[in-house]
Design goal:
five-stranded parallel sheet; globular; about 15% strand; about 190 residues; 7 helices; alpha/beta; single chain; about 45% helix
Amino acid sequence: MKKGTSTLLILATLILAPVYLAQAQKAAATPRIGVLYLGAPPNANLDAFIQGLRELRYVEGKNILIEYRFAEGKAERLPELARELVLLKVDAIFTAGTPAIFALREATKTIPIVFFSTSDPIGTGVVASLAHPGGNITGITTQASDLWPKRLELLKEIFPSSRGWPWFGIRAMLAWRSKRKQPKTWQDRWA
């Protein structure tokens, strides 16, 4: 199984957990997932997500319903599309990208929102922390900025006599910290 597919399989499991619990409460109802994307189909990540659902034995139209909403590159449409999904009373919503997450966050405080791919969920205010996102939003991030301290530590171990890495490290760390709102240390992010 490819790395991206396994990641999306995990994501499918995350999104289906609340759906499964909701399904246990409403035994006769078919779970309904909302999907909100800024772009338009086809989408490789969405295709992998659907494949992950199939691997978990969820087949669209058979034992799960999926409501798709695509903004087709028009970010101003996201709030309207998010409200549509909320009005449909979906059990959970799968999305990608910060603008779509913000639109969904404004539209609902109760429906679980699972995101795939947002560059900095803490710095943009999408979640409180990676360990404890809080609220109804969770997901997987492509965030790499939190790794700078560890990267620099590894560079020092790999090239202990190098004179170039300290300047690179200082510049990288300053850039990393200047983009951060709160917290300022990487240890705080995982607390």
